[in-house]
């Protein structure tokens, strides 16, 4: 009989001779053969827009054969205002594949500002999700001292782990990891006492290497007020990766990424659970840093992709970083996709050689120096230019690409354009006036290449309660940024 490792690597649905299975897929490659997405859930934000409405979860029809294709077909408003829904995760994913009692039923919605965590039932009616439970911030603060929840990941145990970015007063020193049980009751902190990171943001675990790695945005007291470069100088933003024992919760190594690794945000391991390699996108310096396990068991890092800043005129600084705000890896670990929120482009890199990514596709879908804006980019010869960004279904593309999500088969990439309401107001004020949108990018997985799908455009500027900001996207069946394999 094959070992568990062999079974998972070969992608069969059989686990130790048993045909019963839990949610998700036996392996990343099996997930690629999963059904084509027909719905996407999107966190939509009114917080910070001045509209006095609660944030909501939108259900979008992404079935090209449907009469409501690329339309919002349901909206679930939260019971309170001022949440700032941001990222989301599942109560169960492919890490629970061996547990037939588990189900991918609840979408977990942490509220970055209010500190509430919502559990949304997507099983009763996937097209019209309903509110199941609210984890109140007072309960979290009283039992753990944590606030500003960000990333939620399901664990193989059935528990849910949520990174929190500070204490109730917005101090980064109070950040850490919140552990919820399978019914969303607060269990306590995950990390061992005295092992909290310097700053918090995203995290990913790789059980076969007994490791979790987290990244570091900044102190909530700083980023909630908008981006101020002085706050970087003042030490209110991060530049570190934190390496933990898994599932022990002991901080065993801190990687200082230095001045070339400022504001490390999303962190992803390769999907193959045997690999000890991953990447983190460093927003301010716009470098993709590769991290890897050394022969002695320690972890190292190096810059794998560098997005050069662009000289500009009529902007707040003489040079503009790309500002990598999101990236993801295809389920077969062949391609890496990143979004430059300020420059306005989405890029595709072949990472079959993880240490030497090769640019294979690029498409501009907005940005600060697109035609029609006041900002001009400077070429090396001193001449100025602007990027010609096409309209989609008669709509001028607003803002820049922010959160991205890839179809299981790797052929369709979806992109929203809102980062965080306060930063949207600062860098792309038109988003608050005209709302966000979702684009679909067609992906060439053979030769490489990206192209905007002209048939698809979801306009959140035309919402019933006024323009809203669209952020993270999830499929009911899981995706390459929510599922972790063990």
UniProtKB/TrEMBL annotation:
Alphabetical list of InterPro entries matching this protein: Se-bd (IPR008826)
List the SUPFAM superfamilies hit by this protein, alphabetically: 3-carboxy-cis,cis-mucoante lactonizing enzyme (SSF75011)
In Pfam terms, one family for this protein is: SBP56
Keyword Transmembrane on this protein? no
* Alphabetic keyword roster: Selenium
A GO MF term: selenium binding
Keyword Heme in annotation? no
Per its UniProt record, what PANTHER family does this chain match? METHANETHIOL OXIDASE (PTHR23300)
Q: Which family does it belong to?
A: Belongs to the selenium-binding protein family.
What protein name applies here? Selenium-binding protein 1-like
Gene that encodes it = LOC104211605
């Amino acid at each position: 009989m094959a070992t568990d490792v062999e079974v998972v690597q070969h992608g069969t649905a059989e686990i130790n001779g048993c045909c019963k299975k839990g949610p998700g897929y036996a392996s990343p490659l099996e997930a690629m053969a999963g059904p084509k997405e027909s719905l996407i859930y999107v966190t939509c934000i009114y917080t910070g827009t001045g509209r006095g409405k609660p944030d909501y979860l939108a259900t979008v029809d992404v079935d090209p054969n449907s009469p409501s294709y690329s339309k919002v077909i349901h909206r679930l408003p939260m019971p309170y205002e001022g949440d700032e829904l941001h990222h989301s995760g599942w109560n169960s994913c492919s890490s629970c594949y061996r547990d037939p009692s588990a189900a991918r039923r609840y979408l977990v919605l942490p509220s970055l500002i209010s500190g509430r965590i919502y559990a949304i039932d997507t099983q009763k009616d996937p097209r019209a999700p309903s509110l199941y439970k609210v984890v109140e911030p007072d309960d979290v603060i009283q039992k753990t001292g944590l606030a500003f929840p960000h990333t939620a990941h399901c664990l193989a145990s059935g528990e849910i782990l949520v990174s929190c970015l500070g204490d109730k007063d917005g101090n980064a020193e109070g950040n850490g990891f919140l552990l919820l049980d399978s019914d969303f009751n607060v269990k306590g902190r995950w990390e061992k006492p005295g092992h909290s990171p310097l700053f918090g943001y995203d995290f990913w675990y790789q059980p076969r290497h007994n490791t979790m790695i987290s990244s570091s945005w900044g102190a909530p007291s700083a980023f909630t007020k908008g981006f101020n470069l002085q706050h970087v100088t003042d030490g209110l933003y991060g530049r570190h990766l934190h390496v933990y024992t898994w599932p022990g919760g002991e901080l065993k190594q801190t990687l200082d990424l230095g001045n070339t690794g400022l504001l490390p945000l999303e962190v992803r391991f390769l999907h193959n659970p045997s690999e000890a390699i991953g990447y983190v996108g460093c927003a301010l310096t716009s470098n993709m840093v590769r991290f890897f396990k050394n022969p002695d068991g320690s972890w190292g890092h190096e810059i794998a992709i560098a997005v050069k800043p662009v000289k500009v005129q009529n902007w707040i600084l003489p040079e503009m970083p790309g500002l990598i705000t999101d990236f993801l890896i295809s389920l077969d670990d062949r391609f890496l996709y990143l979004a430059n929120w300020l420059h306005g482009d989405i890029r595709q890199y072949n990472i079959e050689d993880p240490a030497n990514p090769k640019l294979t596709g690029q498409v501009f879908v907005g940005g600060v120096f697109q035609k029609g804006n006041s900002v001009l980019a400077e070429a090396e010869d001193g001449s100025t230019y602007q990027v010609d960004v096409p309209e989609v279904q008669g709509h001028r593309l607003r803002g820049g690409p922010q959160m991205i999500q890839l179809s299981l088969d790797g052929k369709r990439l979806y992109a929203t354009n809102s980062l965080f309401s306060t930063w949207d107001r600062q860098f792309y004020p038109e988003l608050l006036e005209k709302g966000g949108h979702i684009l679909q990018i067609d992906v060439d997985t053979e030769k490489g290449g990206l192209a905007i799908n002209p048939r698809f455009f979801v306009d959140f500027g035309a919402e019933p309660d006024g323009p809203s900001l669209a952020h993270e996207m999830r499929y009911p069946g899981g995706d390459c940024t929510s599922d972790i394999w063990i």
